[in-house]
Amino acid sequence: MRSVGVEEELLLVDSGTWQPCALSTAVLAAVSRDPQGNEDVFESELQRQQLEFATRPQTDMGDLREEIVRWRGEAARHAEGLGASVAALATSPLEVSPTIGSGERYEWLKEHFGLTAHEQLTSGCHVHVSVESDEEGVAVLDRVRPWLPVLLAMSANSPYWQGEDSGYASYRNRVWGRWPSAGPVEVFGSADRYHEQVADMVASGVLKDEGMVYFDARLSHTYPTVEVRVADVCLDPSTTVLLATLVRGLVETAARRWRDGEPPARHGLALLRLATWRAARSGLADELIHPATMRPAPAEAVVRALFDHVRDALEDSGDVLPAQEALAALLKGGNGAQVQRELLHRTGSLTDVVAECVARTRG
Question: Disulfide: which of 20, 57, 290, 349 matches 96 by Cβ 3.0-4.6 Å?
C-alpha cells in the first residue's frame, strides 16, 4: 500500500488580540529545548507568522489523523508558552504586515520578487504519496491534472484578506499564483521531459533552485513521492485526512491506468487555469468545472465524481467507508471558507472568527 505524508502550514496568532504574530523563531527555539525532541517535525516558513510541521509516512489513515492532531497540539503547546496560538487558516482574516524570515534564501526571495514575496502569508497543505519511480510519478502527474481543482474546492479555507471578504473561497490560491512557477502544468509524457522542463526553469535564472518549482502537483525533490500542493490548509483535521485519502486514491488510480496503457486527458493549460480559478472562487458553494467534460456542474456532483473515480483504489485500501463518512460531513458542514463566513455572520467579528478557528484547529 502506498504511504502518505502530510505537511501543514499553520498561522501563529497572539492569544490576546488574535492578530498574526512573528514568533516562528521563538517557537522553534522552544521546540529545540523540549526534552521530547521533535525538532525534525517542525520548521519555519517564508513568513515569521507561520509554522510548518510534517508527519511521517503512514499507510493507515487513522494513524495519519493521530499524527496530524498530535502535531497541531504540540505546535499549540509551544506557542502557548509564548502567549500565542496556532490557527489552521490559509490566510489571516485580520489585517497583517507579514515579516519575512532571515537567511540567505529568504533574502534572495525578498530581493527578487518584491511585493509578491512580502505578501505571501498563505498556508497550504501538501500531500506526499509514494511512487515506485520517477516514470510512474510523472505518469501520475499527467493523469491527475484535471482533478486537482476539485481538491482545492474541498479544502478552500481562505475567504478573508487584510480584514475584508475577498469574494473567493480560496484567496490563498490567487495570492500563491503570483509566483511565476505556480499552477497547473501540461502533460509531460515522460520523466526525462519533466526533468528537462524543471532544469530549463531553473536555468532561466528566475527561480533560485528546484525547490521553487511550485506546480500544483510535482515530483518531490526530497522524497520518492508525488507531492500534491494545490490545497489550502484545512480547518478541520478530518478534512485533511479526507484530502490525503483522496490524493492516495488519485495516485493509485492514475498509476493503474498508466500501466493499462490508458492515455491522460489532454485538457489544455488554459482550461485547467479556468477550472482552478472557478474552484478558488466558488469552493463548494457553487458550480465547479467537471474534470471529464470541462463544463460547469454543481460542486457536489463534481466532488462525488472524484469519489467515484477513485472508488476502486479506496476499496482496495479499505478507505471507502471512512472516506464516505468524511465526505458527507464536509458537504453538510462546509469547508473552511464556508465555516468562516458562517462564523462572521453569527458573531459579526473577524476577531471572533480567528478565536473560534484556533479552537477548531485541534479538532
Answer: 20
